[in-house]
Amino acid sequence: MSSSQRKSPVVYTNAVYWPNYRVFHGDSPGQLNYGCINRVYYAFATVTANGGVFLSNEEADAEVACDGVKGALGSLMHLKQKHTHLQVVLSIGGGASAETFPIVASSPILRDNFARSARGLLDASGLNGIDIVWEYPCTPEQGSDFLALVAAIRIYLPEEHYLLTATLPAVRAVLQNIDLGQAAEYLDTINLAAYDFFGPWSHKSGHQAQLYAMNKDEPSGASGVRDLMSAGVPSRKILLGIPLFGRSFLHVSGPGHKNRGAGGGPDGSFEYSQLPRKGTKEQVDKRAVAAQCVGGDGGFVSYDNPDTVRMKAAFCKQKRLGGLFYWSAPSDSKDPKRSLIATGFKALHSS
To answer: Can you tell me which residues the record assigns to a coiled coil (predicted)?
Structure first.
């Protein structure tokens, strides 16, 4: 190995999700800093029961005025010409497709329809690939259907021309249903959603995106990464997910208490740009690698901040992961010093 090869910097993926409905909130893809983003997942396209893949909101995607062009997807395709390093990937699924994926994935004919339909959409739009967000294969049978689906898609999206990724939760109950080593043969990356460990649905409060679990029975980012790697997924194919939102637990002062309800939006969350809450002090739990603020209208709010993102980036480098992704870009702080996307990029690429 020559010294020039040894010194070449490792380029990590720093990817963001951009949900199409955010265009109606006054957000646009042009507001992001593409100096620190090299992949955008445009979310979500829908899948129909016959396997067809369609853009989910024509007005948002192709009609509304956005960054001087038509539609948020139009804006991204325009930005892609300007920033030649930028990959734009169509994210298919999300919560709205949870019922359809099991139907489509269980049939060879529907899998083929899906793959052909996705390919047609990519070629018509100039997108770089697709991301499968099936929330989530919850039986061994669905796990093997998931594998059959990604195998079918690869036939139509050869890896030298198209990206194929999938988003999975860092939760063993889901991961154990899938032959992950085999899935990684077809996928360019697995986006590990290392968040939503605790929320309004859980019986106790907790750090929603902890890198390390405080108790043996709790999920964590590190255990999710370990599960993927021990199943044979190459580390460079794993992106670690960072939430750009915090989860609220009212009337408690930290993790491990009985869940007594949530503040914030209808789903018990606050956007990261609204944290820490007014009148509270931000703290970092270095052992769990989690930030929090306590008091005010959110009670105990668990989230990530620049300190925890630097620690997570260091973990990525230590484990030789592919990089980080963020859900979702419009919720990041507009203050460059507070921006988690910028912090993650800098931390990944600093020596």
So the answer is: none
CA distance 269 to 265: 5
Q: What are the structural domain ranges in the chain?
A: 3-244+304-349
Domain 3-244+304-349 maps to which CATH number in 3.40.50.2000, 1.10.10.10, 3.40.50.10860, 3.20.20.80?
3.20.20.80
**What are 270's strand-pairing partners?**
246
pTM (two decimals): 0.97
Which residues are paired to 290 by β-bridges?
285
With a cut of 80, say whether residue 167 has pLDDT above it. Answer: yes
Q: Do residues 345 and 36 make contact, with C-beta atoms less than 8 angstroms apart? A: yes
Q: Average pLDDT in the 192-207 region?
A: 98
CA distance 34 to 85: 9
**Given 135, 185, 271, 282, the catalytic residue:** 135
Residue 351 confidence class, pLDDT cut points 50, 70, 90: confident
135 catalytic per annotation: yes
The whole-angstrom distance between residue 140's C-alpha and the CA centroid of its chain comes to: 23
Cis (ω within 30 of 0) for the bond into 200? no
Q: Where are the beta strands (DSSP E) in 250-343?
A: 269-271, 282-285, 290-295, 299-303, 323-327
Strands 245-249 and 269-271: antiparallel
Asked if pLDDT for residue 4 goes beyond 60, the answer is no
* Phi, psi for 94 (deg, rounded to 5): 80, -175
Q: What is the mean pLDDT of residues 196-219?
A: 96
Cis geometry, peptide bond prior to residue 17 (ω within 30 degrees of 0) = no
Q: Which two tokens stand for residue 205?
A: 């409060």
